[in-house]
Each structure stands twice: as C-alpha cells, then as structure tokens.
Amino acid sequence: MVDVTDGVREFVAVVEAGGFRAAGRQLGVSGTALSKTLRQLEQRLGVTLLLRTTRSVRLTEAGERYYAASSQALDKLRTAAEEVGELADAPRGTIRLNISSGAEGFLRGAVLAGFLQMYPDVQLDIIVDEDVSDIVAAGYDAGIRLGEVIEQDMIAVPASGPQRLVVVGSPAYFARHPGPEHPRDLAGHTCINWRPGPHSPPYRWEFTEPGGGDFSVAVPARVVANDFSLMMRMVTAGLGLTMGMGDGVQPYLDRGEVIAVLEDFCPPFPGYYLYYPQRRQASPALRALIDYLLRLRQSR
Prior knowledge:
The protein is 38% helix and 22% strand. The protein is an alpha/beta fold. The strands form 5 sheets. A 5-stranded mixed sheet has the order 4-3-5-14-6. A 3-stranded antiparallel sheet has the order 12-7-13. A two-stranded antiparallel sheet has the order 1-2. 30% of the residues are buried.
C-alpha cells in the first residue's frame, strides 16, 4: 500500500528552501536524491508540481494547491507532536538554533553546558551564521540575535543582560602607540575590523557621545575578517585595535591580554533575544531553554 505522506516533507522543504540543493543541506540528503523523491511523488499524483531550471524551481498551479495543503498538514502534525511531548516527564528532542557570532560569546561555556546537564534528553543543533534569513524556511526552531535585527512577526524573549561594544588593544600595541582619547583618533591607528560576509561592507564602529547622540566611524582596517577568534589572536599579537562584544572580549581582559579604551563612548545597550515564529508554539524543549535563559539572566 502506498503511503500518501511519502515525499511530502521533502516537497515542502524544496519549496521553502527555494531549491533542491538548499533543501538537501537541511534534510541531510543530496539534491539528486531529493529530485528523485519529488519525481516519484509527481508520478504518484499524476501532475507536475515543480517547474525546474538549472538555477531555481517554480510551483505549477497544481503545486501551489498541493503546497498550501501539505504545509498546513505538516504544521498540524508538528503541533500535535509538541502537544503530546508536553505529556512527557521531561523535555526531550533536538532544538535547531541559528545564532549570530556575537551571541556565541555569551552562550559559550557554562551557559549551554548548564542547560544540557539540566535536561539530559535535549540535544542542540547550533549554526553560527551572520545571515539574518527566514529561520522558518531554513528549518530552525529559533534564533538568537540582537533585538534590532529581529523581524516584527517573531516572538522575542530577552536571553541576555545588557551588552556593550568594547575597543581593545594589547599592552604591546599601546607600548608603541598612545591610546585613542576620542573615536576620531582611530584614524591614526591600525585596526582589525569585522564584516559579516564576503559581500557585506566592513562594520562601521558605533559609539555614543557622552551626553550626546550616536555616531559611527569607518576605521582604517589593516585586516578585515569574519571570525572573532582570528581577530583577537591578531590583537593579542600586537597588530592593532578591534571592537567586539563585551562577553566575547571579557576573557581576554580578565587575563590581561588586552586593555579597553574609549569606554566613555561605549555605553550598554539591550542585549540578545531568543526569537521564534508566532504561528508556531514553542516545543517543550525550546520552552525549557527559554525559561533557563530567563532564570540565568535574572540571577546575574
């Protein structure tokens, strides 16, 4: 007997990811295998669901109707699974998270280790990614980012305390160069800057004038990178100054490997939020993570 659900999950994934290759990465299968599964589904239904080109896929009229029905059915199945899961004695299952590299700074170490020790039946699948994409279409349960970049149709829950940007350099660097007294002095310094991706402009360092307004500075960068650990290795080697999130920089400050400057121009601001779509109820495992982060934030 043919299972009417065969290929449905794969079909929805291809539509929402915009192609076979992207959907295959989410599902852990090859694009070729997905294409074969979809052709079998079309043969079983007797209609063409997708028009394929070398670069994209497009829904036919039949495909649009089938996608609307099948995506709703999958949502109902997920909701049912989550409701049944709430009857379990303890949260369980996998939470897929998409987080920014800055958020990784406050989550590392004891934070996530403590959560996993508290909930031994929960697994975490974490992708550190600067692309603020549609977490639903990409198959994530939730994301963690600064509030200013989160879509308005998401439920956002505070996940950290206030954050600060910090400008730092090594003692060896400051032995050769006087520290900047104002952000405009950065024009005379060697800087190591960050960019989120290969096609994004380098970050403009953000400051607040004491008693005044916000402003940004395009610093002269000797090195531009998208990996904070690499940037900090260059800083501790004495190459120049960089700006990073306070949680990420703090271990280097504690060890005396770097010195903070321009602190009067770097006031705290609201921190990170865990967010997930309004149309999807948080699973017991995700709810456990939310409650854990809230308790941890309140205890600090």
